[in-house]
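Each record in this resource describes a single protein on a pair of labelled lines. With that in mind, the following record should read easily:

===
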Amino acid sequence: MKRQRGAALLLVLWVLALLSVLLGGLAGWVQLESRQALWLRQHTQTVLAAEAGIAQVMADRRWVADGRDIPLAFDDAQLHVSLRSERGKLYLINADLQDLTHLALACGATPAQATQLAKALEVRRHQGLAPFRVLEEVRQLPGMTQTLYSQLLPEITLWSDLDRPDPAFASPLMRKALNLPRQNAEGVDPGEVLVVDSRAERPGGYQARLQVTVLLSPSEDSAQPYRVLRWQE
């Protein structure tokens, strides 16, 4: 009888220990889910604040599209927004191959890489292949590395229709690479395609950044003032 009671007691203790482990694991899982839900909610609110920054600058077309910082606020978020015209970038569809070579070198390419990229683009044109549909296709060109791609991406475009970048909107790197003159962008037409860079920061260290390429509507009174061509978060 005593043996049976002892065995029953051990069984009860074992069950209690197992339940304690299960409850502890459940409590940890609930806490983790709560933290993830809190982060997701805060992150979503921060992204929405960044979107609000885009809406604010697009509602006022008087901003200069040369990349200068525009400090704004939305609710409890501090915003830093900038506009940059695509006219200041190298148009891949018909850019001079020597310009592409110089730009690639300025972005850190070796002479062999820069030459390989220019030749790949030349072959693509002569073979009558379809133009690039998205900028990400440039990553597939021979000689392109991830590091070079990340440096080159902000300097190239599919939407400017210019043989050479407009010096008024070109970045310092572009002006140096192509030996372009320094010009003031104020009062210069930025064209219809702009890149909006919106960074939001909220209390608690929550941050979000959006880079959106937009096509402006011809009329400021249009029901849809712009159309999104490219969206990066």
Observations:
- Residues 131 and 137 are 10 Å apart (CA to CA).
- Residues 2-58 form the longest helix (57 residues).
- The chain has five helices and seven strands.
- The chain has a mean pLDDT of 88.
